[in-house]
Amino acid sequence: MNKTDLAGAPGARPPVVRPEDSGLQSAGTALWRYLGLMALAALPLLLLAKDPYWLNIIAFTYLMGGLASAWNIIGGFGGQFSLGHGVFFGIGAYVTAIATARYGLSPWLVMVPAALLASLVAMLISWPTFRLKGPFFAIATMAFNEVAFVLANHFDSFTGGPRGIMIPFKAGFANMIFRERWQYAVLMFVFVALVVGITVCLRRSRLGYYLLAVREDEDAARASGINVLSVKLQGMALSAFLTAIGGTLFTMYLRFIDPPSLFTLQDVGVKFALLSLIGGVGTIAGPLLGAALIVPFENFLRAELADALPGMNLAILGLLMVLAALFMKRGVVGAVEDLVRKIRSRRGGR
Amino acid sequence: MDQLLNVLVIGLLLGGVYGLVSVGLNLIFGTVRIVNFAQGELVMFGMYGGYYAYNILGLSPYLSVFLVAPAVGLLGVLIQRLVIQPLHNESNMQIFATFGLLMMFQNIMLAVTRGEARSVGGDFGAQVIELGDIKVGTVRLLTFVITTAITIALHFWLTRTMVGKSVRAVTQDKRAARAMGINVEKTFLMTFGIGSALAGLAGVMLTPIYSITPGVGGNFILAAFAVVVLGGLGSVWGAYLGGLIVGVVEAFAGYYIDPALRHAIWFLIFLAVLIIRPAGLLGQVGAEEVGFREQN
Which of A16, A226, A349, B217 is a plausible cystine mate for B44, CB 3.0–4.6 Å? Predict the structure, then answer.
Protein backbone atom coordinates (compact mmCIF):
# COMPACT_ATOMS: atom_id res chain seq x y z
CA MET A 1 0.00 0.00 0.00
CA ASN A 2 1.30 3.43 -0.73
CA LYS A 3 0.62 6.35 1.49
CA THR A 4 -2.07 7.94 -0.60
CA ASP A 5 -4.98 6.23 1.04
CA LEU A 6 -3.91 7.02 4.55
CA ALA A 7 -4.16 10.70 5.21
CA GLY A 8 -7.31 11.85 3.59
CA ALA A 9 -9.22 8.99 2.06
CA PRO A 10 -12.52 8.30 3.75
CA GLY A 11 -11.59 4.84 4.68
CA ALA A 12 -12.37 2.11 2.36
CA ARG A 13 -12.43 3.55 -1.07
CA PRO A 14 -9.49 2.09 -2.92
CA PRO A 15 -7.25 4.75 -4.42
CA VAL A 16 -7.37 3.17 -7.84
CA VAL A 17 -9.80 4.70 -10.27
CA ARG A 18 -12.51 2.23 -11.04
CA PRO A 19 -13.54 1.74 -14.66
CA GLU A 20 -16.87 3.46 -14.25
CA ASP A 21 -15.17 6.52 -12.77
CA SER A 22 -12.74 6.97 -15.57
CA GLY A 23 -15.18 7.99 -18.24
CA LEU A 24 -16.93 11.32 -18.05
CA GLN A 25 -20.64 11.11 -17.58
CA SER A 26 -22.53 13.27 -20.01
CA ALA A 27 -24.64 16.07 -18.60
CA GLY A 28 -27.76 14.36 -19.92
CA THR A 29 -27.02 11.09 -18.13
CA ALA A 30 -26.33 12.94 -14.92
CA LEU A 31 -29.58 14.86 -15.21
CA TRP A 32 -31.64 11.73 -15.88
CA ARG A 33 -30.01 9.87 -13.03
CA TYR A 34 -30.69 12.80 -10.74
CA LEU A 35 -34.34 12.99 -11.79
CA GLY A 36 -34.71 9.23 -11.38
CA LEU A 37 -33.23 9.36 -7.88
CA MET A 38 -35.52 12.20 -6.90
CA ALA A 39 -38.57 10.43 -8.32
CA LEU A 40 -37.65 7.39 -6.25
CA ALA A 41 -37.19 9.59 -3.20
CA ALA A 42 -40.57 11.24 -3.74
CA LEU A 43 -42.38 7.91 -3.97
CA PRO A 44 -42.93 7.31 -0.23
CA LEU A 45 -44.26 10.84 0.13
CA LEU A 46 -46.84 10.22 -2.59
CA LEU A 47 -47.81 6.80 -1.25
CA LEU A 48 -48.11 7.70 2.41
CA ALA A 49 -49.37 11.28 2.16
CA LYS A 50 -52.32 10.60 4.46
CA ASP A 51 -50.53 8.96 7.36
CA PRO A 52 -49.24 11.55 9.85
CA TYR A 53 -46.99 9.03 11.65
CA TRP A 54 -45.20 8.10 8.45
CA LEU A 55 -45.20 11.68 7.18
CA ASN A 56 -43.20 12.69 10.24
CA ILE A 57 -40.64 9.97 9.53
CA ILE A 58 -40.53 10.84 5.84
CA ALA A 59 -39.99 14.53 6.55
CA PHE A 60 -37.14 13.68 8.90
CA THR A 61 -35.66 11.26 6.41
CA TYR A 62 -35.58 13.99 3.75
CA LEU A 63 -34.08 16.47 6.18
CA MET A 64 -31.40 14.06 7.37
CA GLY A 65 -30.75 12.92 3.80
CA GLY A 66 -30.14 16.52 2.78
CA LEU A 67 -27.91 17.16 5.79
CA ALA A 68 -25.92 13.99 5.18
CA SER A 69 -25.51 14.99 1.53
CA ALA A 70 -24.25 18.38 2.67
CA TRP A 71 -21.75 16.67 4.98
CA ASN A 72 -20.75 14.40 2.12
CA ILE A 73 -19.49 17.39 0.12
CA ILE A 74 -16.55 17.94 2.43
CA GLY A 75 -16.52 14.62 4.30
CA GLY A 76 -17.02 12.38 1.29
CA PHE A 77 -15.72 14.20 -1.76
CA GLY A 78 -13.12 16.22 0.12
CA GLY A 79 -12.20 13.39 2.48
CA GLN A 80 -12.21 15.74 5.49
CA PHE A 81 -13.93 13.72 8.18
CA SER A 82 -15.66 16.50 10.10
CA LEU A 83 -17.55 15.63 13.25
CA GLY A 84 -18.31 19.26 13.97
CA HIS A 85 -21.09 19.97 11.53
CA GLY A 86 -23.37 20.41 14.53
CA VAL A 87 -21.82 23.88 14.84
CA PHE A 88 -23.14 24.97 11.44
CA PHE A 89 -26.45 23.22 12.02
CA GLY A 90 -26.69 25.06 15.34
CA ILE A 91 -25.89 28.44 13.78
CA GLY A 92 -28.68 28.00 11.25
CA ALA A 93 -31.07 26.89 13.96
CA TYR A 94 -30.25 29.57 16.53
CA VAL A 95 -30.18 32.50 14.13
CA THR A 96 -33.54 31.41 12.76
CA ALA A 97 -35.08 30.82 16.16
CA ILE A 98 -33.87 34.12 17.61
CA ALA A 99 -34.87 36.15 14.58
CA THR A 100 -38.35 34.64 14.32
CA ALA A 101 -39.26 34.25 17.98
CA ARG A 102 -37.83 37.57 19.22
CA TYR A 103 -37.94 39.87 16.24
CA GLY A 104 -40.80 38.39 14.26
CA LEU A 105 -38.80 38.09 11.06
CA SER A 106 -39.74 35.58 8.39
CA PRO A 107 -37.51 32.48 8.38
CA TRP A 108 -37.29 32.77 4.60
CA LEU A 109 -35.50 36.08 5.01
CA VAL A 110 -33.23 34.83 7.75
CA MET A 111 -32.31 31.53 6.17
CA VAL A 112 -29.70 32.72 3.70
CA PRO A 113 -27.93 35.25 5.95
CA ALA A 114 -27.78 32.56 8.67
CA ALA A 115 -26.27 30.14 6.19
CA LEU A 116 -23.74 32.74 5.07
CA LEU A 117 -22.80 33.28 8.71
CA ALA A 118 -22.32 29.54 9.08
CA SER A 119 -20.08 29.54 6.00
CA LEU A 120 -18.02 32.33 7.47
CA VAL A 121 -17.66 30.55 10.79
CA ALA A 122 -16.83 27.35 8.95
CA MET A 123 -13.99 29.05 7.11
CA LEU A 124 -12.70 30.70 10.28
CA ILE A 125 -12.58 27.50 12.29
CA SER A 126 -11.44 25.34 9.41
CA TRP A 127 -8.51 27.50 8.48
CA PRO A 128 -6.41 26.33 11.44
CA THR A 129 -7.91 22.84 11.64
CA PHE A 130 -7.26 21.98 8.00
CA ARG A 131 -3.61 21.77 8.91
CA LEU A 132 -4.53 18.57 10.68
CA LYS A 133 -4.88 15.25 9.00
CA GLY A 134 -7.19 12.29 9.45
CA PRO A 135 -8.08 11.61 13.07
CA PHE A 136 -6.61 14.88 14.34
CA PHE A 137 -8.97 16.79 12.14
CA ALA A 138 -11.91 14.71 13.34
CA ILE A 139 -11.03 15.28 17.00
CA ALA A 140 -10.54 19.01 16.51
CA THR A 141 -13.89 19.42 14.79
CA MET A 142 -15.49 17.38 17.55
CA ALA A 143 -13.95 19.80 20.04
CA PHE A 144 -15.56 22.71 18.19
CA ASN A 145 -18.90 20.99 18.49
CA GLU A 146 -18.50 20.52 22.23
CA VAL A 147 -17.50 24.15 22.66
CA ALA A 148 -20.56 25.27 20.74
CA PHE A 149 -22.60 23.15 23.15
CA VAL A 150 -21.00 24.84 26.17
CA LEU A 151 -21.37 28.33 24.71
CA ALA A 152 -25.02 27.79 23.76
CA ASN A 153 -25.73 26.69 27.31
CA HIS A 154 -23.78 29.53 28.81
CA PHE A 155 -25.00 32.60 26.93
CA ASP A 156 -28.60 32.11 27.95
CA SER A 157 -29.66 35.71 27.44
CA PHE A 158 -28.98 35.12 23.78
CA THR A 159 -29.77 31.46 23.18
CA GLY A 160 -32.18 30.78 26.00
CA GLY A 161 -29.59 28.47 27.52
CA PRO A 162 -30.77 25.04 28.60
CA ARG A 163 -34.39 26.21 28.50
CA GLY A 164 -34.14 26.57 24.74
CA ILE A 165 -36.21 28.72 22.44
CA MET A 166 -39.83 28.13 21.59
CA ILE A 167 -41.28 29.52 18.40
CA PRO A 168 -44.96 30.46 18.67
CA PHE A 169 -47.33 28.70 16.31
CA LYS A 170 -48.42 31.14 13.63
CA ALA A 171 -49.38 29.14 10.59
CA GLY A 172 -48.64 30.59 7.21
CA PHE A 173 -46.25 30.24 4.34
CA ALA A 174 -44.42 33.45 5.27
CA ASN A 175 -43.70 32.04 8.73
CA MET A 176 -42.65 28.64 7.35
CA ILE A 177 -45.14 27.09 9.75
CA PHE A 178 -47.74 24.77 8.30
CA ARG A 179 -50.89 23.12 9.59
CA GLU A 180 -50.41 19.92 7.67
CA ARG A 181 -47.57 17.46 8.01
CA TRP A 182 -47.38 16.85 4.28
CA GLN A 183 -46.55 20.49 3.69
CA TYR A 184 -43.48 20.09 5.87
CA ALA A 185 -42.61 16.87 4.07
CA VAL A 186 -42.75 18.71 0.74
CA LEU A 187 -40.56 21.46 2.17
CA MET A 188 -37.99 18.90 3.30
CA PHE A 189 -38.17 17.20 -0.07
CA VAL A 190 -37.36 20.48 -1.79
CA PHE A 191 -34.40 20.83 0.54
CA VAL A 192 -33.01 17.38 -0.19
CA ALA A 193 -33.62 17.81 -3.92
CA LEU A 194 -31.73 21.09 -3.78
CA VAL A 195 -28.77 19.67 -1.87
CA VAL A 196 -28.49 16.56 -4.02
CA GLY A 197 -28.83 18.73 -7.14
CA ILE A 198 -25.97 20.90 -5.95
CA THR A 199 -23.95 17.77 -5.22
CA VAL A 200 -24.55 16.49 -8.75
CA CYS A 201 -23.37 19.79 -10.22
CA LEU A 202 -20.44 19.94 -7.84
CA ARG A 203 -19.33 16.44 -8.75
CA ARG A 204 -19.02 17.57 -12.37
CA SER A 205 -17.45 20.93 -11.60
CA ARG A 206 -13.84 21.99 -11.30
CA LEU A 207 -14.17 22.31 -7.51
CA GLY A 208 -15.60 18.79 -7.34
CA TYR A 209 -12.62 17.30 -9.17
CA TYR A 210 -10.24 19.33 -7.04
CA LEU A 211 -11.90 17.99 -3.90
CA LEU A 212 -11.53 14.41 -5.11
CA ALA A 213 -7.89 15.07 -5.98
CA VAL A 214 -7.25 16.46 -2.49
CA ARG A 215 -8.91 13.44 -0.94
CA GLU A 216 -6.90 10.93 -2.91
CA ASP A 217 -3.51 12.53 -2.49
CA GLU A 218 -2.96 15.96 -1.04
CA ASP A 219 0.69 16.17 -2.04
CA ALA A 220 0.02 15.13 -5.59
CA ALA A 221 -2.87 17.60 -5.77
CA ARG A 222 -0.59 20.37 -4.56
CA ALA A 223 2.07 19.34 -7.04
CA SER A 224 -0.49 19.60 -9.82
CA GLY A 225 -1.04 23.22 -8.93
CA ILE A 226 -4.18 22.89 -6.85
CA ASN A 227 -4.43 25.31 -3.93
CA VAL A 228 -5.29 22.62 -1.40
CA LEU A 229 -6.30 24.89 1.47
CA SER A 230 -8.50 27.04 -0.72
CA VAL A 231 -10.24 23.99 -2.18
CA LYS A 232 -10.89 22.54 1.26
CA LEU A 233 -12.18 25.90 2.52
CA GLN A 234 -14.55 26.26 -0.43
CA GLY A 235 -15.86 22.73 0.08
CA MET A 236 -16.33 23.35 3.78
CA ALA A 237 -18.07 26.69 3.21
CA LEU A 238 -20.55 25.13 0.80
CA SER A 239 -21.14 22.19 3.10
CA ALA A 240 -21.68 24.49 6.09
CA PHE A 241 -24.03 26.72 4.10
CA LEU A 242 -26.31 23.82 3.24
CA THR A 243 -26.06 22.37 6.75
CA ALA A 244 -27.21 25.70 8.21
CA ILE A 245 -30.20 25.76 5.88
CA GLY A 246 -31.03 22.32 7.23
CA GLY A 247 -30.77 23.85 10.71
CA THR A 248 -33.34 26.49 9.76
CA LEU A 249 -35.77 23.86 8.48
CA PHE A 250 -35.23 21.70 11.56
CA THR A 251 -36.06 24.67 13.79
CA MET A 252 -39.18 25.60 11.90
CA TYR A 253 -40.39 22.00 11.87
CA LEU A 254 -39.95 21.32 15.58
CA ARG A 255 -40.55 24.95 16.65
CA PHE A 256 -38.38 24.27 19.67
CA ILE A 257 -34.61 24.07 19.96
CA ASP A 258 -32.24 23.65 22.86
CA PRO A 259 -28.52 22.84 23.02
CA PRO A 260 -28.90 19.03 23.30
CA SER A 261 -31.13 18.81 20.26
CA LEU A 262 -28.55 20.67 18.16
CA PHE A 263 -25.18 19.61 19.50
CA THR A 264 -25.54 16.03 20.76
CA LEU A 265 -22.85 14.28 18.77
CA GLN A 266 -24.63 11.04 18.09
CA ASP A 267 -27.80 12.79 16.98
CA VAL A 268 -26.23 15.50 14.87
CA GLY A 269 -22.54 15.83 14.08
CA VAL A 270 -21.77 12.13 13.93
CA LYS A 271 -25.17 11.24 12.53
CA PHE A 272 -24.48 13.08 9.26
CA ALA A 273 -21.29 11.08 8.84
CA LEU A 274 -23.01 7.86 9.91
CA LEU A 275 -25.76 8.20 7.30
CA SER A 276 -23.24 8.95 4.55
CA LEU A 277 -21.04 6.04 5.52
CA ILE A 278 -23.88 3.54 5.74
CA GLY A 279 -25.20 4.63 2.36
CA GLY A 280 -21.85 5.06 0.66
CA VAL A 281 -19.49 7.89 1.39
CA GLY A 282 -18.38 10.06 -1.52
CA THR A 283 -21.26 8.95 -3.72
CA ILE A 284 -24.24 11.03 -4.72
CA ALA A 285 -27.02 8.62 -3.76
CA GLY A 286 -25.23 7.25 -0.69
CA PRO A 287 -26.19 9.79 1.99
CA LEU A 288 -29.79 9.79 0.83
CA LEU A 289 -29.90 6.01 0.88
CA GLY A 290 -28.30 5.95 4.32
CA ALA A 291 -30.99 8.30 5.63
CA ALA A 292 -33.74 6.24 4.01
CA LEU A 293 -32.48 3.13 5.79
CA ILE A 294 -31.44 4.48 9.16
CA VAL A 295 -34.00 7.16 10.04
CA PRO A 296 -37.06 4.85 9.81
CA PHE A 297 -35.11 2.02 11.45
CA GLU A 298 -34.17 4.30 14.30
CA ASN A 299 -37.76 5.41 14.72
CA PHE A 300 -38.83 1.79 14.84
CA LEU A 301 -36.19 0.95 17.43
CA ARG A 302 -37.11 3.92 19.56
CA ALA A 303 -40.77 3.00 19.47
CA GLU A 304 -40.10 -0.66 20.26
CA LEU A 305 -37.26 -0.48 22.76
CA ALA A 306 -37.06 2.91 24.42
CA ASP A 307 -39.56 2.09 27.16
CA ALA A 308 -38.37 -1.39 27.97
CA LEU A 309 -34.65 -0.73 27.74
CA PRO A 310 -33.66 2.94 27.66
CA GLY A 311 -30.75 3.59 25.33
CA MET A 312 -30.95 0.20 23.66
CA ASN A 313 -31.94 1.80 20.36
CA LEU A 314 -28.71 3.84 20.37
CA ALA A 315 -26.70 0.79 21.39
CA ILE A 316 -28.00 -1.07 18.36
CA LEU A 317 -27.16 1.92 16.17
CA GLY A 318 -23.66 1.86 17.62
CA LEU A 319 -23.34 -1.84 16.83
CA LEU A 320 -24.50 -1.08 13.30
CA MET A 321 -21.75 1.54 13.00
CA VAL A 322 -19.11 -0.95 14.05
CA LEU A 323 -20.41 -3.61 11.67
CA ALA A 324 -20.65 -1.15 8.79
CA ALA A 325 -17.08 0.00 9.38
CA LEU A 326 -15.88 -3.58 9.41
CA PHE A 327 -17.86 -5.24 6.68
CA MET A 328 -19.47 -2.61 4.47
CA LYS A 329 -16.81 0.00 4.09
CA ARG A 330 -18.17 1.46 0.91
CA GLY A 331 -21.70 1.50 2.19
CA VAL A 332 -24.81 0.16 0.52
CA VAL A 333 -23.92 1.85 -2.76
CA GLY A 334 -20.53 0.17 -2.75
CA ALA A 335 -22.03 -3.21 -1.90
CA VAL A 336 -24.53 -2.89 -4.75
CA GLU A 337 -21.77 -1.84 -7.17
CA ASP A 338 -19.71 -4.86 -6.20
CA LEU A 339 -22.70 -7.12 -6.69
CA VAL A 340 -23.45 -5.64 -10.11
CA ARG A 341 -19.84 -6.07 -11.16
CA LYS A 342 -19.80 -9.67 -10.00
CA ILE A 343 -22.94 -10.47 -11.99
CA ARG A 344 -21.53 -8.74 -15.06
CA SER A 345 -18.22 -10.56 -14.90
CA ARG A 346 -20.01 -13.88 -14.45
CA ARG A 347 -21.91 -13.21 -17.63
CA GLY A 348 -18.59 -12.77 -19.33
CA GLY A 349 -18.93 -9.06 -19.95
CA ARG A 350 -16.09 -6.76 -19.03
CA MET B 1 -2.66 34.80 47.98
CA ASP B 2 -4.17 31.90 49.88
CA GLN B 3 -6.96 31.81 47.40
CA LEU B 4 -4.52 31.76 44.53
CA LEU B 5 -2.61 28.92 46.15
CA ASN B 6 -5.82 27.07 46.84
CA VAL B 7 -6.95 27.31 43.24
CA LEU B 8 -3.50 26.23 42.11
CA VAL B 9 -3.61 23.16 44.33
CA ILE B 10 -7.11 22.30 43.17
CA GLY B 11 -5.92 22.68 39.60
CA LEU B 12 -2.88 20.49 40.11
CA LEU B 13 -4.96 17.77 41.71
CA LEU B 14 -7.50 17.98 38.91
CA GLY B 15 -4.53 17.75 36.57
CA GLY B 16 -3.62 14.52 38.29
CA VAL B 17 -7.06 13.16 37.41
CA TYR B 18 -6.71 14.24 33.79
CA GLY B 19 -3.21 12.87 33.61
CA LEU B 20 -4.46 9.53 34.92
CA VAL B 21 -7.24 9.38 32.36
CA SER B 22 -4.94 10.48 29.55
CA VAL B 23 -2.03 8.19 30.19
CA GLY B 24 -3.74 5.17 28.66
CA LEU B 25 -5.08 7.14 25.74
CA ASN B 26 -1.67 8.57 25.08
CA LEU B 27 -0.14 5.13 24.98
CA ILE B 28 -2.72 3.96 22.46
CA PHE B 29 -3.00 7.13 20.42
CA GLY B 30 0.65 7.99 20.60
CA THR B 31 2.05 4.55 19.98
CA VAL B 32 -0.40 2.55 17.97
CA ARG B 33 -1.82 5.70 16.32
CA ILE B 34 -5.34 4.58 16.93
CA VAL B 35 -8.00 7.08 17.83
CA ASN B 36 -10.02 5.26 20.39
CA PHE B 37 -13.15 7.28 21.05
CA ALA B 38 -14.34 4.52 23.35
CA GLN B 39 -11.48 5.17 25.78
CA GLY B 40 -13.75 7.28 27.99
CA GLU B 41 -16.18 4.36 28.12
CA LEU B 42 -13.37 2.10 29.31
CA VAL B 43 -12.90 4.57 32.15
CA MET B 44 -16.64 4.34 32.74
CA PHE B 45 -16.46 0.54 32.88
CA GLY B 46 -13.65 0.87 35.37
CA MET B 47 -15.85 3.09 37.51
CA TYR B 48 -18.76 0.67 37.42
CA GLY B 49 -16.36 -2.16 38.15
CA GLY B 50 -15.15 -0.29 41.21
CA TYR B 51 -18.71 0.45 42.22
CA TYR B 52 -19.95 -3.13 41.95
CA ALA B 53 -16.85 -4.51 43.62
CA TYR B 54 -17.48 -2.14 46.50
CA ASN B 55 -21.19 -2.79 46.81
CA ILE B 56 -21.32 -6.51 46.11
CA LEU B 57 -17.94 -7.81 47.20
CA GLY B 58 -17.25 -5.09 49.72
CA LEU B 59 -13.86 -4.39 48.19
CA SER B 60 -12.24 -1.00 48.55
CA PRO B 61 -11.40 0.60 45.18
CA TYR B 62 -7.74 0.32 46.07
CA LEU B 63 -8.09 -3.47 46.19
CA SER B 64 -10.62 -4.04 43.44
CA VAL B 65 -8.40 -2.16 41.01
CA PHE B 66 -6.29 -5.30 40.74
CA LEU B 67 -9.38 -7.11 39.53
CA VAL B 68 -11.02 -4.45 37.41
CA ALA B 69 -8.03 -3.03 35.55
CA PRO B 70 -7.00 -6.39 34.04
CA ALA B 71 -10.62 -7.08 33.10
CA VAL B 72 -10.88 -3.76 31.25
CA GLY B 73 -7.49 -4.48 29.70
CA LEU B 74 -8.85 -7.77 28.41
CA LEU B 75 -11.81 -5.94 26.91
CA GLY B 76 -9.31 -3.62 25.24
CA VAL B 77 -7.45 -6.58 23.76
CA LEU B 78 -10.72 -7.90 22.38
CA ILE B 79 -11.53 -4.50 20.86
CA GLN B 80 -8.12 -4.30 19.27
CA ARG B 81 -8.30 -7.83 17.88
CA LEU B 82 -11.88 -7.73 16.61
CA VAL B 83 -12.43 -4.14 15.58
CA ILE B 84 -9.23 -2.14 15.31
CA GLN B 85 -6.88 -4.63 13.72
CA PRO B 86 -9.08 -5.32 10.69
CA LEU B 87 -9.16 -1.55 10.15
CA HIS B 88 -5.48 -0.92 10.70
CA ASN B 89 -4.95 1.16 7.61
CA GLU B 90 -8.09 3.21 7.69
CA SER B 91 -8.07 5.95 10.28
CA ASN B 92 -11.49 7.31 9.32
CA MET B 93 -13.09 3.90 9.69
CA GLN B 94 -11.40 3.53 13.07
CA ILE B 95 -12.98 6.78 14.19
CA PHE B 96 -16.32 5.55 12.96
CA ALA B 97 -16.01 2.10 14.52
CA THR B 98 -14.75 3.30 17.89
CA PHE B 99 -17.47 5.93 18.00
CA GLY B 100 -19.91 3.09 17.40
CA LEU B 101 -18.36 1.27 20.34
CA LEU B 102 -18.74 4.42 22.42
CA MET B 103 -22.46 4.56 21.64
CA MET B 104 -22.83 0.86 22.28
CA PHE B 105 -21.06 0.78 25.64
CA GLN B 106 -22.62 3.97 26.90
CA ASN B 107 -26.14 2.92 26.05
CA ILE B 108 -25.80 -0.67 27.18
CA MET B 109 -24.82 0.68 30.58
CA LEU B 110 -27.74 3.08 30.37
CA ALA B 111 -30.08 0.14 29.77
CA VAL B 112 -28.50 -1.88 32.57
CA THR B 113 -28.51 0.87 35.18
CA ARG B 114 -31.66 2.63 33.93
CA GLY B 115 -29.76 5.88 34.00
CA GLU B 116 -29.49 6.27 37.74
CA ALA B 117 -26.30 7.87 38.95
CA ARG B 118 -24.31 5.76 41.40
CA SER B 119 -21.52 6.61 43.75
CA VAL B 120 -19.29 4.79 46.14
CA GLY B 121 -20.59 6.07 49.41
CA GLY B 122 -19.21 7.79 52.37
CA ASP B 123 -15.86 7.85 53.98
CA PHE B 124 -13.47 7.71 51.01
CA GLY B 125 -14.29 10.85 49.15
CA ALA B 126 -14.86 13.11 52.11
CA GLN B 127 -11.53 12.89 53.93
CA VAL B 128 -9.48 16.05 53.82
CA ILE B 129 -5.95 16.85 54.82
CA GLU B 130 -5.35 20.42 55.94
CA LEU B 131 -2.05 22.10 55.25
CA GLY B 132 -2.31 25.52 56.81
CA ASP B 133 -5.20 27.14 55.02
CA ILE B 134 -5.14 24.79 52.11
CA LYS B 135 -7.46 21.83 52.11
CA VAL B 136 -6.52 18.80 50.10
CA GLY B 137 -8.87 15.91 49.47
CA THR B 138 -7.13 12.68 50.43
CA VAL B 139 -8.43 10.78 47.45
CA ARG B 140 -7.39 13.47 45.04
CA LEU B 141 -3.95 13.60 46.56
CA LEU B 142 -3.70 9.84 46.28
CA THR B 143 -4.82 10.04 42.65
CA PHE B 144 -2.09 12.56 42.01
CA VAL B 145 0.50 10.27 43.58
CA ILE B 146 -0.74 7.29 41.57
CA THR B 147 -0.62 9.30 38.35
CA THR B 148 2.95 10.28 39.07
CA ALA B 149 3.91 6.72 39.93
CA ILE B 150 2.33 5.34 36.76
CA THR B 151 4.03 7.97 34.64
CA ILE B 152 7.41 7.07 36.10
CA ALA B 153 6.76 3.35 35.70
CA LEU B 154 5.62 3.81 32.12
CA HIS B 155 8.66 5.93 31.36
CA PHE B 156 11.02 3.24 32.58
CA TRP B 157 9.04 0.53 30.88
CA LEU B 158 9.25 2.29 27.54
CA THR B 159 12.90 3.30 27.77
CA ARG B 160 14.58 0.53 29.75
CA THR B 161 12.86 -2.75 29.03
CA MET B 162 13.14 -4.73 25.84
CA VAL B 163 9.36 -4.92 25.45
CA GLY B 164 8.98 -1.18 25.95
CA LYS B 165 11.69 -0.51 23.42
CA SER B 166 9.92 -2.71 20.91
CA VAL B 167 6.77 -0.65 21.42
CA ARG B 168 8.70 2.50 20.59
CA ALA B 169 10.35 0.85 17.65
CA VAL B 170 6.99 -0.13 16.21
CA THR B 171 5.78 3.46 16.63
CA GLN B 172 8.71 4.86 14.73
CA ASP B 173 8.89 2.46 11.83
CA LYS B 174 6.76 -0.60 11.53
CA ARG B 175 8.60 -2.09 8.61
CA ALA B 176 12.03 -1.73 10.18
CA ALA B 177 10.69 -3.06 13.48
CA ARG B 178 9.31 -6.08 11.70
CA ALA B 179 12.66 -6.62 10.01
CA MET B 180 14.28 -6.63 13.45
CA GLY B 181 12.09 -9.54 14.41
CA ILE B 182 9.47 -7.66 16.40
CA ASN B 183 5.98 -9.07 16.19
CA VAL B 184 4.13 -5.89 15.30
CA GLU B 185 0.61 -7.25 15.75
CA LYS B 186 1.43 -8.69 19.14
CA THR B 187 2.99 -5.40 20.22
CA PHE B 188 -0.12 -3.52 19.17
CA LEU B 189 -2.34 -5.96 21.00
CA MET B 190 -0.28 -5.62 24.14
CA THR B 191 -0.10 -1.83 23.96
CA PHE B 192 -3.81 -1.56 23.43
CA GLY B 193 -4.41 -3.92 26.34
CA ILE B 194 -2.17 -1.93 28.65
CA GLY B 195 -3.69 1.36 27.54
CA SER B 196 -7.16 -0.01 28.23
CA ALA B 197 -6.14 -1.44 31.59
CA LEU B 198 -4.83 2.02 32.51
CA ALA B 199 -8.21 3.47 31.59
CA GLY B 200 -9.86 0.86 33.80
CA LEU B 201 -7.46 1.71 36.59
CA ALA B 202 -8.23 5.40 36.20
CA GLY B 203 -11.93 4.59 36.42
CA VAL B 204 -11.62 2.65 39.65
CA MET B 205 -9.45 5.35 41.18
CA LEU B 206 -12.04 7.98 40.36
CA THR B 207 -15.03 6.16 41.90
CA PRO B 208 -14.67 7.90 45.26
CA ILE B 209 -14.63 11.38 43.71
CA TYR B 210 -17.01 11.27 40.77
CA SER B 211 -20.59 10.10 40.65
CA ILE B 212 -20.98 7.32 38.14
CA THR B 213 -23.29 7.64 35.17
CA PRO B 214 -23.24 5.88 31.81
CA GLY B 215 -22.29 9.17 30.13
CA VAL B 216 -19.39 9.94 32.42
CA GLY B 217 -16.84 8.85 29.81
CA GLY B 218 -17.81 11.80 27.65
CA ASN B 219 -16.56 14.14 30.38
CA PHE B 220 -13.13 12.64 30.14
CA ILE B 221 -12.56 11.83 26.51
CA LEU B 222 -12.29 15.36 25.17
CA ALA B 223 -10.17 16.48 28.09
CA ALA B 224 -7.97 13.46 27.50
CA PHE B 225 -7.56 14.27 23.83
CA ALA B 226 -6.71 17.86 24.72
CA VAL B 227 -4.15 16.63 27.22
CA VAL B 228 -2.59 14.22 24.77
CA VAL B 229 -2.38 16.73 21.95
CA LEU B 230 -1.07 19.42 24.30
CA GLY B 231 1.54 17.22 25.91
CA GLY B 232 2.69 15.61 22.74
CA LEU B 233 1.71 12.37 21.12
CA GLY B 234 3.40 9.36 22.54
CA SER B 235 5.29 11.35 25.14
CA VAL B 236 4.68 9.90 28.59
CA TRP B 237 5.82 13.00 30.42
CA GLY B 238 3.93 15.10 27.92
CA ALA B 239 0.67 13.53 29.05
CA TYR B 240 1.61 14.17 32.67
CA LEU B 241 2.56 17.79 32.05
CA GLY B 242 -0.39 18.29 29.71
CA GLY B 243 -2.74 16.96 32.37
CA LEU B 244 -1.37 19.36 34.95
CA ILE B 245 -1.60 22.33 32.61
CA VAL B 246 -5.16 21.54 31.57
CA GLY B 247 -6.12 21.01 35.21
CA VAL B 248 -4.59 24.28 36.39
CA VAL B 249 -5.98 26.30 33.50
CA GLU B 250 -9.41 24.81 34.06
CA ALA B 251 -9.29 25.57 37.78
CA PHE B 252 -8.26 29.17 37.22
CA ALA B 253 -10.78 29.70 34.46
CA GLY B 254 -13.46 28.16 36.64
CA TYR B 255 -12.57 30.34 39.57
CA TYR B 256 -11.87 33.67 37.92
CA ILE B 257 -14.10 33.59 34.86
CA ASP B 258 -17.05 31.23 35.07
CA PRO B 259 -17.30 27.55 36.02
CA ALA B 260 -19.67 26.92 33.11
CA LEU B 261 -17.04 28.03 30.64
CA ARG B 262 -14.22 25.87 31.88
CA HIS B 263 -14.89 23.23 29.22
CA ALA B 264 -14.45 25.85 26.55
CA ILE B 265 -10.97 26.36 27.94
CA TRP B 266 -9.92 22.88 26.80
CA PHE B 267 -10.75 23.92 23.32
CA LEU B 268 -8.74 27.12 23.51
CA ILE B 269 -5.72 25.17 24.68
CA PHE B 270 -6.36 22.65 22.00
CA LEU B 271 -6.60 25.21 19.25
CA ALA B 272 -3.57 27.13 20.42
CA VAL B 273 -1.50 23.97 20.38
CA LEU B 274 -2.75 22.91 16.98
CA ILE B 275 -1.88 26.26 15.47
CA ILE B 276 1.41 26.92 17.20
CA ARG B 277 2.91 23.51 17.70
CA PRO B 278 0.92 20.53 16.43
CA ALA B 279 3.51 18.14 17.85
CA GLY B 280 2.62 19.23 21.39
CA LEU B 281 4.86 20.48 24.16
CA LEU B 282 7.09 17.46 24.58
CA GLY B 283 6.30 15.61 21.39
CA GLN B 284 8.77 15.10 18.64
CA VAL B 285 8.23 17.61 15.85
CA GLY B 286 6.52 15.79 13.04
CA ALA B 287 5.27 13.09 15.39
CA GLU B 288 1.72 13.99 14.48
CA GLU B 289 2.36 12.79 10.95
CA VAL B 290 4.47 9.74 11.67
CA GLY B 291 2.50 6.57 11.51
CA PHE B 292 -0.27 8.06 9.43
CA ARG B 293 2.03 8.24 6.49
CA GLU B 294 3.73 4.89 6.52
CA GLN B 295 1.32 2.42 7.98
CA ASN B 296 2.01 -0.99 6.63
Answer: B217
